[in-house]
Amino acid sequence: MTLIGIDFCQLCDEEIPFSEIFKGQLIFQNRIVCEKCMRQFKTFKQLCCSDCGGKVAKAQRTCLECLTWQKYLGFRTNNIAVFMYNEIMQNYLTRYKFQGGYHLSKLFRRAIWHKIYQQKAEIVVPIPVHEITYQQRGYNQVEGILGTNFTRLLTKAIFAEPQSKKTKLERLDTSNPFRIDSQVSVSLETKICLVDDVYTTGRTLRHAYNTLRQVGFTQLNSVTLARSGFMREV
Ligand SMILES: [Zn+2]
Ligand SMILES: [Zn+2]
């Protein structure tokens, strides 16, 4: 928001110091978030689980939860998270996703593409939102972060059946909402990078991996903007 030449931080609503705005202008960037807020976004500096991208306290490659999923599903994920899901990330996502803050979509575009390029994928597939969510929100938040160069290979359905009586693993098995969009033609040899905003339990991403694997895609990995939760030590 700009008020008579004054810029306010889009996350804390405080006035952005002129020195920060001036610095932004030097690198042709509009400062919409103050430096104090930006410093609160934390990347993973330590060892991460190779499957979910979360913290692992010891020198193991995979956390216990992901090992359990691997055993049950027969495949592993390969996820990297850009940031930890902390209070400022929650604030960002709330404003971006639920308070119509589409102007915040660009804030981490460079950061997420930096991780995506490291995956050396041939196509980038955002996790879809359901058509109703899309209509209400006006955008898919993942596509907003990416900006461009993505492929809408997956679609999302809504399930009416109650899932509450099933175990976590049973739910994963039976309630996969993702389908391949048959109108999109992609060779099964294509190396795909899935992208989502937050990894919480991993259920969403594993559904997406599962859908792609079932039709024959094998070269899959994923990047999420944030990773919530702390993994148990193995
Ligand atoms: Zn701020
Ligand atoms: Zn893990």
Summarize the structure.
With 234 residues, this protein is of the alpha/beta class. It is 33% helix and 15% strand.
Give your account of this protein's structure.
By secondary structure, the protein is an alpha/beta fold. It has two domains: 1-39, no CATH class; 43-227, Rossmann fold (3-Layer(aba) Sandwich), CATH 3.40.50. It is 33% helix and 15% strand. The protein has helices at 18-26, 35-38, 64-73, 87-98, 109-118, 131-137, 141-146, 168-174, 203-214; strands at 2-3, 6-7, 79-84, 123-126, 154-156, 178-180, 192-199, 220-227. The strands form three sheets. The protein has a four-stranded parallel sheet, sandwiched between helices. A two-stranded antiparallel ribbon has the order 1-2. It has a two-stranded antiparallel ribbon with strand order 5-6. It binds zinc ion (2 copies). One zinc ion binds at residues 49, 51-52, 54, 62-63, 65-66, 231.
Write the layout of secondary structure elements.
Layout lengths: L1 E2 L2 E2 L10 H9 L8 H4 L25 H10 L5 E6 L2 H12 L10 H10 L4 E4 L4 H7 L3 H6 L7 E3 L11 H7 L3 E3 L11 E8 L3 H12 L5 E8 L7
One zinc ion binds next to helix 3.
